[in-house]
Each structure stands twice: as C-alpha cells, then as structure tokens.
Design goal:
By secondary structure, this protein is an alpha+beta fold. The chain is globular. It has a five-stranded antiparallel sheet with strand order 5-9-8-7-6. Strands 3-1-2-4 form a four-stranded mixed sheet. It is built from 23 helices and eleven strands. The two termini are 41 Å apart. Helix 7 packs across helix 10 (179-185), helix 15 packs antiparallel against helix 18 and helix 19 runs antiparallel to helix 20.
C-alpha cells in the first residue's frame, strides 16, 4: 500500500487508525516517522515519504515519533493472509528466529538461500532480515525499559542485543532518547512488579468482538494448562474483568500469560522464567488472539453476501481463535475427533496430568505445560482411553512431529502442510482444516463437514451438503475461516459467548 501515495495521504490527513501497521509516514522536515493515526498536525504532502515497515524508516535515518509511538502499531495484516516466502519470513522474524538462529536459520526454515531471503525482503519491505529483527529488538527493549525495573544491562541482553553499547546506540538512534530517559518518561505505575512480571497493552484494529474469541478459548480450556478467571487484571486500569490464562512453552523457558479484553486493547500480564522470551511471548499472544487481522476488509467481503450480512452487522469484528503452540493444537484436534468439547478436554487433561511438565502458578490454578511431541511419543499407546483407530492416528501424529518429519509452525506452507496432514492415517478434511485454520493461521480454511456449520447452513437457507456449501462459500474467499466464526455464532454453544 505504501506505493499508493494518494491513498496514504488521505489516510494520514484523516488520521485513520485502520491503516496503522499497513504503512509508516516519514517526515522529511523533522526526520521522524509516524503511524497514519498520529494526532499531530499532518505535514504537507510534499514532505511525506511512505515506507512499508518501521525497519525501513529506521534504515532510512528516521526516528520514531514520541507522540504516536509508531513502533507499537499493530502488525501488518499482510503477514496474516499471505502464504508466500516474504509473509512466512515475517512471521518467523516476529517469533524471534533471527535472534536465536541468525539469517541462515531463517533461510533454512524457508528453504531458500540467505541471499534470496534478503533480496525478497529488501524488495518488498525496504529492509533486510537483520534490520527487521533490529527494529523488533528495539521495541522489546523499550517495553522492558518502561514496564520493569530490570537493570539496563539485563534489558539489553533480554531484548537480544549482543552488547550494552549496541543496545544504547540503537535506543538513541531509534527513539532519540537514552535508555535512562525512556525510563524516566514512562508513567510512574508502568514500571512495577518483580523481574519477569510484565503488564502490557496489546493493540488491535477495531472493531474486535471478544465473544467468540475468548468464549472459544475458555470453553475448550484444558485444566492445568488453561483457565478462565472471572476477576483478574484489576490493577491495569478500569474495572475488574475476567481473563483467559494459560502456560506457555518458550525457547528459553516457560511463561504464564493472562489476557483480558478491553475496548481499545487487550490487557496482557506476562510472567516469564527468562526475559529473553518476551518478544516470542508477545508474538504468540497476538497470534493466539488474531490481533493483526484487518476486520474491516474481512467484514466488507463477507457483508457482500446477503445471508452473512445480518450476522456481520450484528457483531462485527470476529476473530479466529488460534494457538500459541501448533503441535499442541494438532494433538488436541485429534483428541476432539467425533467427541464433544467436554470429552476432548477430559482426554487432554489426562495427558497433561500424566505427561506434562509441572509449573508453579502463584496467581491461579495452572499446573502444567502441555506435553511436547517428544514426551507424548514416549508414552505407552495402551494407556490411551480412546478407540484403536484414533489411538493409531494420535501415535502417528506425535511420532512424526517428534521426529521432525512433520513440521507445524509459522513458517509452514499452508497447502503443502494440509496435504501432508491428509496423508496421515485417520486424518480427514475436518481435522486437517481445523489445524490449518487455528494452528497454521490460514484465513481461508473452511469446515463444510462440521456439524455446527451444517446446522447453521440449514437454518440460514444455505446448502447443507459439504460439496454444495463449499461451492456457495467461494464468494467468501479469502476469508472463509472468518465466515466459519460467524456461522458458528448462530448456535447457543458456550464457545460463542464471553464467559460471565
């Protein structure tokens, strides 16, 4: 979008927050860059230059605006609905792969050479993988500076910098303030708590309907790994509100997150065993709640169908509830085959109790990390209380995941991975598409065989047979996963309602 100068100028002049994260405005006369919704007086069009990423602005010598804080914009929705190499690379960079494995590790995961990856990112985003990762490290550092009392040296290494000097230079260059000045300017109640305990605001593009999003996560929560607390996060401003909480398996340790919906953000409290996991934890929480989606584009497309239009108008902004762990979601999808939500939770809870890693949670009832594929591959199949065919499906899946023969992650190629899933014994279209929709993040995954979808189709006068419904749903592409959320919402199942 940044190449459409006229459209970008209109968005800046109208301070349209819908375009935050789509592009960034660099102002030639001041040397700063802003988000489109910046409340400052818009500059003259001749003084504006538009860039596709904050990293491109920084690489061009611009510093972040202190008023609108463009480095905290929602992520570009481009990386949500695209499955090409650039989109997959951006999802991996957000997950901290460059900091942990370098550019060579990023390229290896994508199946390209480092030169190809750098060339593609530079051509589309105006910055290579190192510059993009550097911009992300700067934002992580700012979060730690403003929300914790960690010493600056610890902040530097937790954010992924190789030295304190590089950390100081980067912060000054990006924010035009020293780390100490940033902490001094932060609100007095922002930096609090113990090291590892962070309170953050996760931005999103409005509207966001929390009903099905948090309702689904709460209704399917696995005891010990997830829970819904009716009163939580009171200290983050406003009235007491319920929160979804869960444990996180992270690269350097484990964490616990509490997430609560607010009118203009998601209140997030993170407790991390190692602060180096902050960037990854934030990225996975945003992915879990689908916070980088563009609800206006999705709803406009679905609203064009006269059958879906009343559903969209009634509760716009539905998101797709996703996951923080793709392998976990795949295992739970198999456990949920042809059983009720309650039965699936029971099966998963037994696995957690028997094979999960214990954790301590001083705030609630979380007790374990969900077991990894390696831990599940080592169990005795005879102990699984499920039919023989599903037991074979389960053991085949966890063995392939543990061996690395099947990889599920943000870098996955959606069509190829779906095909590999369908080749496994016991995997039909429903299981593969649930994993594609919620684990892989495919916005066009569709569930025509799902009982809830077929029931909704009959009530709305849509074709109810899978083939006919799939043909009818062609008009909803590329947002059929969101159409699934609106169709599910016609039912009274608990997944569709924010817990009281």
């Amino acid at each position: 979008m940044h190449t459409d100068t006229e459209r970008c100028v209109r968005a800046v002049r109208s301070r349209d927050a819908r375009f935050d994260g789509w592009f960034f405005t660099a102002v030639l006369t001041t040397g700063i860059y802003c988000r489109p919704s910046c409340p400052a007086v818009p500059p003259k069009p001749g003084n504006m230059v538009f860039h596709p990423s904050a990293a491109a602005c920084q690489q061009a010598g611009f510093r972040a605006c202190k008023r609108c804080r463009p480095d905290t914009s929602p992520g570009s929705p481009e990386w949500n609905h695209r499955a090409d190499a650039v989109a997959r690379a951006m999802r991996l960079i957000a997950d901290g792969v460059v900091d942990r494995e370098g550019v060579t590790g990023l390229a290896a995961r994508l199946g390209y050479s480092t030169r190809q990856v750098e060339r593609q990112l530079l051509a589309e985003l105006g910055a290579g993988p190192l510059a993009l990762a550097r911009a992300q490290r700067a934002q992580t550092a700012r979060t730690l500076i403003e929300t914790t009392t960690l010493p600056m040296a610890e902040v530097a290494f937790a954010a992924g910098f190789s030295s304190v000097r590089t950390f100081n230079d980067t912060v000054r260059e990006v924010f035009a303030l020293s780390p100490g000045d940033l902490r001094a300017r932060a609100p007095r109640n922002a930096a609090h708590g113990t090291p590892g305990g962070l309170s953050l605001r996760l931005p999103f593009r409005a509207p966001l309907n929390p009903d099905n999003l948090f309702g689904h996560l709460a209704a399917t929560a696995v005891p010990g790994v997830e829970e819904w607390l009716p009163h939580c996060l009171e200290d983050m401003g406003g009235t007491s509100v319920g929160a979804y909480r869960r444990t996180l398996r992270l690269p350097y340790g484990h964490g616990i997150v509490s997430l609560a919906p607010r009118p203009d953000h998601i209140a997030c409290r993170l407790t991390l065993g190692d602060p180096r996991d902050l960037t990854v934890a934030i990225s996975r929480c945003r992915r879990l709640l689908d916070l980088d989606a563009d609800p206006v584009a999705v709803d406009d497309q679905l609203r064009a169908d006269p059958v879906l239009a009343p559903l969209v108008d009634k509760a716009p902004g539905r998101r797709v509830p996703r996951t923080v762990d793709e392998a976990e979601l795949a295992v739970r999808a198999v456990l949920g085959q042809q059983v009720s939500t309650a039965a699936a939770r029971t099966h998963a809870a037994r696995l957690v109790t028997a094979h999960g890693t214990p954790v301590e949670d001083p705030e609630g009832g979380l007790t374990h990390l969900f077991p990894s594929p390696g831990e599940l591959a080592a169990l005795d199949p005879a102990t699984l209380a499920m039919p023989r065919a599903r037991r074979a499906t389960f053991t085949t899946l966890v063995r392939r995941l543990a061996d690395g023969d099947l990889r599920l992650g943000v870098e996955s190629d959606w069509p190829e991975t779906r095909a590999r899933l369908l080749a496994l014994p016991g995997f039909g279209p429903w299981t593969a598409d649930v994993i594609a929709m919620r684990a892989l993040g495919d916005p066009d995954a569709f569930l025509p065989t799902d009982l809830g979808i077929r029931r909704a189709a009959r009530e709305l006068g849509l074709p109810s047979t899978p083939a006919a419904l799939t043909a009818r749903a062609a008009a909803w592409r590329p947002w059929r996963a969101y159409a699934v959320q609106y169709l599910w919402a016609t039912d009274s199942h608990p997944i569709n309602f924010l817990p009281v």
